[in-house]
Write a structure and sequence with these properties.
By secondary structure, the chain is of the alpha+beta class. About 40% of the residues lie in helices and about 20% in strands. It has helices spanning about 5-20, 35-45, 55-65, 90-95, 125-140, 145; strands at about 20-25, 50-55, 80-85, 100-105, 110-115.
Length: about 160
Amino acid sequence: MDFNLKTYKHFKIKYYLRKKNLIFFFHGTSLKNESWIKIEQALFSHQLTYFRILNKLTINTLKTSIFKNLTTLIHGPIFVLNSSSTKLTLKKLGNISPFIGLLGVRLNYQVYSKEQVNKLKKLTYLENFHILHNSMKAFIKKPYHALKSKKILPISK
């Protein structure tokens, strides 16, 4: 087997897609070294590990995986970020750098776009499930007459 940089990056992408539960996909720009060092420092201060992959390799890898729908979003270098921190929020991710933008999040084997995850408060499954459970408990305790609409809607024939 010919093991070169391209096959290494291909295997690294597959590893991230298979093994990591929480992955952030960021769209980046080609930058000079000074700007890139600032972005790396910001990623390190937020306890994020990253892997930068190029356009064509990303598209070819995603076409052969279950994430085929993501190929339309790719128009440049992609950063695959991984975090072990549980205190990470989407507002912190948006404020990392103006040179990189969030494309999507892979959470529990599902890929969500930026618009779909804007209303999440936390990025862990258990905390979101706990919030859902508490809201369902509060909703069930409300009496029916408090939820019933006062307006009578006309029925069209």
